[in-house]
Specification:
The chain has 128 residues and is α+β, with helices and mostly antiparallel strands. The protein has a single domain, classed as Maf protein (Alpha-Beta Complex). 27% of the residues lie in helices and 34% in strands.
């Protein structure tokens, strides 16, 4: 069995993957500062012996508080933002930017556990 997942942040009509460099991270954080954005994770489960392929996705709405340029610069200096879609990690220092969310917290971390558990059950794998 193979499980794969990938996450992207959608802010208005912009798709925010992982930033290419610090300047890109600063721009991404400015674009979601004080706004709602959506975190979308696609999940695939392939079970070779059962000749089964499943695909699904999870969407979580996240509201950021207003961020100052100096705060964004300090966060980017931590380098935490450089390997995260949307340039922040809710499971790390970026958590202090989040005012609220609607949906699966684990989706924002990068692996929507509820979605994955449902897919595994459909594939005949007992989660509990």
């Amino acid at each position: 069995m193979v499980i794969a997942a990938d996450t992207i942040v959608v802010a208005g009509d912009r798709f925010l993957g992982k930033p290419r460099h610090a300047g890109d991270a600063r721009d991404m954080l400015r674009s979601i500062s004080g706004r709602r954005h959506h975190v979308v994770t696609g999940v695939a489960v392939v079970h070779g012996r059962k000749n089964l392929s499943l695909a699904d996705s999870a969407v979580t709405a996240v509201w950021f508080r207003e961020l100052g340029d100096d705060e964004i610069a300090r966060y980017v200096e931590t380098r935490e933002s450089l390997d995260k879609a949307g340039a922040y990690g809710i499971q790390g220092k970026g958590a202090v930017f989040v005012e609220r969310l609607e949906g699966d917290y684990f989706n924002v971390v990068g692996l929507p556990l509820l979605t994955l558990a449902s897919m595994l059950e459909r594939a005949g794998v007992r989660v509990f």
